[in-house]
Structure formats: C-alpha cells, structure tokens
C-alpha cells in the first residue's frame, strides 16, 4: 500500500528544526518493508518534540507536525512500550518507495557471531513462577513477561543486511530499521503483528496471541498448528487481546467487524493465532491515533492493562525501551502502518540485544514459557546467522 500513500517524493534542503539531530546522509534513518515494498527514509527534517507531545497528546502532536510539513511528508519512528517514556518520531528529509525485489540482493557483508549470552535464563523462569502465583491470588488475569539475549559479532553489525535477511525469512511481516539518535545504535526487526494500518479511512488491526514454534518436518509442523488452534489456554490468551482491541477501538472508529474466532498465521519460525479486525476510522484521526488507542494490547502487556504493566515493572530486571512498543509511519492524510515492535534487536557496534516475551496465565508452565521465548528469538537469531532450529533453550 505504500506506493499509493506517498503523494510524491520530495527533497528539501533547508534544515529548519534546530533540535533535529544531524541527519545521517550516508545511511537510511528509516526502513519499513511490507507487502513487497519498502519505504526508505533518509536524514531527519524535524523531530517530534516530547514537550509538544506531552502538551497535546502524542496523536494530535504527530498530526500537527505533519500538517506543518509539505505534501509527501511522512512521520516515521518508534513509540516505547511504556507510554510515559518519550517516543522517537521524525519527518525524514527524503523518502523513497521502492519494490523489495530490487533491495534484497544479499550482497551485504555479514558479521560472524562470536558469542551468545543469556540463552538459558533462570531469572525468567523464577519471574514466570512468581507471575503465576500472583495471577492465582490477585487481580491480574494475564501478564506478558520478556527476557533479553545478547549476540556479539566479530565486527559491527550492519542493520541493512540484517533487515534484508529478516525480510527474506518472513516477507509477509513488517521489516524495519530505525537509526536511533543516541550512540549510533539502530533497532531492526520483523514484526508479524500489525497494530493499526489505515488506507482511505479503513482501519485494519491484526493482533496475534497464542504461539507455537514451526517444525522442520511438514507433518509435525501441521500437527503443531492444529494443536495450537485447539488449545484452550492459547484461545483464552487470544480472547483477552481481541476483547481489549474491540473495546479500545470504539473511541477512534466505528463499524467494527470482528471475526468470531482466530485464524492461524505462520511466520518463518512461529505459528500464531491471529484475528483480522476491520473498522472505519473517525474523520480527522490518523493511523497513529488508532495504534495508540490499542497500545499496549494484552499480547504484549497483559490484562487488565495497568495491573499487568505494574507487574512487568516489578518482575522484569530492566526497562523494555522500544521493545514491545510501536514502529511505523504515517502520512499527512493519517494513512500509514504501525506494527508491534518485536522479533527485534538493538544493534550497537558488535553487540545485538534481543528481547522476546510470552503471555503468562494461571495454567502456564514457566519452562514452557521459557521455550516459547526461545522460539521467538529464532527469527532474529537466524537473521544474525545463529541457527537454533529445534533448540528449546
Ligand atoms: C511477546 C511477543 O509476542 C507476542 C506474544 C504472543 C503470544 O503470547 O503468543 C504472540 C505474538 C505477540 O503478540 C514477542 O515476540 O516477544
């Protein structure tokens, strides 16, 4: 849908926003591939001021910033998991809309993995056990707990080549890179989950919850999918998400169409339960307003939201940062795509920091949830050149 949404490609020369970080002219500041095409942003023309966002609200501030820009401008970037933390949203200086076919040449030099740290994480197993106790005795029904993993290479990671490999692995996903202003770090990932996509006023959300790893043997793989589709635990986890989104969307959209049950969605490494929700976005609102109305869903946070978020802060050792947030773009008409920021890594020099989470409910098993996070790491591990097929660590 990208091609239809960019009114034209344009380039401006004057740097008007003194708060904007110096643009990286040599490298893309934003890449977002979906449906076979990629939006590539270069440089930073203006950044969304955190103070303005606090004053107006993030959605209105984003729309206002875009309204001040010339036709063809887009807003791109990331919103953290924690809504109280500052987003990194910017208007690229120049945007290209290109077919992915021409971009996945695979000619990039790849780094060689030297060390993987944190594959077995006993702290996560303890935290999952504590969460189950709290769910059984308290008011939280579901909480998503995440853990991290570090992968060190022999030389600097190249975000573009990791992005290309992620796309090749799962072309149906949303593959992205964002150059972060601090420390020359980048976030790269391939999200299977569209939180809000808007085209000509029509809103689509495709939440996922309920997961099983893909298996190499075809018959076993089909069997795993069938088990997932019939799993009461996974269907209940999924139901929390659909209920949350259907309620939350009513503040920004009408004419909701919500299927009665989920479908199976395969990615390169995982099976997921997914429900395609459609609605008509209220006039004057944008895709970011819709995404923010839903975020964070119980697929990444839990249910009820506030209590689950408090439990995450208590049980996870570090703040999530942009993992579990939103990544995407929006044009001046409010059209755009915002995906859940997961199956991702922060690349900083030769270090890649990965995050993955799993939904914990009353009848969860902490070891199974550890295995589920291990399976979710595989998307990024594969793109980094680590083969962990079949491993439950
Ligand atoms: C938390 C993650 O994934 C989320 C949780 C899922 C689940 O609990 O089944 C499925 C997809 C995502 O919404 C992750 O990939 O890190």
From TrEMBL:
It is an enzyme of class 5 (isomerase). It catalyses: chorismate = isochorismate. SUPFAM superfamilies: ADC synthase. Residues 127-376 form the Chorismate-utilising enzyme C-terminal domain. This is isochorismate synthase. Belongs to the isochorismate synthase family. InterPro entries: ADC_synthase, Chorismate_C, IsoChor_synthase. Residues 1-26 are annotated as: Disordered. Pfam families: Chorismate_bind. Keywords: Isomerase. The keyword Isomerase applies. Its EC number is 5.4.4.2.
């Amino acid at each position: 849908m990208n091609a239809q949404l960019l009114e034209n490609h344009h380039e401006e020369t004057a740097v008007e926003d003194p708060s904007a970080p110096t643009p990286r002219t040599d490298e893309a500041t934003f890449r977002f591939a979906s449906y076979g095409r990629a939006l590539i942003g270069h440089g930073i023309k203006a950044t969304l001021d955190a103070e303005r966002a606090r004053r107006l609200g993030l959605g209105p501030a984003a729309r206002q910033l875009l309204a001040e820009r010339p036709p063809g401008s887009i807003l791109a970037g990331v919103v953290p998991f924690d809504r109280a933390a500052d987003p990194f949203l910017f208007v690229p200086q120049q945007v290209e809309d290109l077919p992915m076919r021409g971009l996945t040449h695979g000619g990039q030099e790849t780094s060689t993995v030297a060390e993987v740290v944190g594959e077995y994480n006993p702290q996560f197993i303890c935290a999952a056990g504590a969460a189950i106790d709290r769910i059984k005795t308290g008011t939280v029904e579901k909480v998503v707990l995440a853990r991290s993993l570090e992968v060190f290479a022999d030389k600097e990671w190249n975000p573009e080549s990791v992005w290309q490999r992620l796309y090749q692995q799962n072309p149906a996903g949303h593959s992205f890179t964002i150059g972060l202003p601090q420390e020359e770090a980048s976030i790269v990932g391939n999200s299977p989950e569209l939180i809000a996509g808007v085209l000509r006023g029509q809103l689509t959300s495709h939440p996922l919850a309920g997961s099983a790893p893909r298996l190499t043997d075809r018959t076993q793989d089909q069997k795993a999918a069938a088990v997932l589709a019939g799993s009461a635990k996974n269907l209940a986890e999924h139901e929390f998400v659909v209920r949350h989104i259907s309620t939350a969307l009513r503040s920004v959209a009408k004419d909701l169409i919500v299927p009665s049950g989920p479908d199976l969605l395969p990615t390169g490494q995982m099976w997921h339960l997914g429900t395609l929700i459609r609605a008509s976005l209220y006039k004057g609102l944008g895709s970011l307003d819709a995404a923010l109305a839903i975020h964070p869903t119980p697929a990444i946070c839990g249910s009820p939201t506030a209590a689950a978020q408090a439990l995450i802060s208590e049980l996870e050792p570090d703040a999530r940062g942009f993992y579990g947030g939103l990544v995407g773009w929006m044009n001046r008409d409010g059209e755009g795509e915002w995906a859940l920021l997961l199956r991702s890594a922060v690349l900083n020099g030769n270090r890649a920091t990965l995050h993955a989470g799993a939904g914990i409910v009353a009848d969860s098993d902490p070891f199974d949830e550890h295995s589920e996070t291990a399976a979710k790491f595989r998307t990024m591990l594969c793109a980094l050149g680590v083969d962990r097929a079949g491993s439950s660590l």
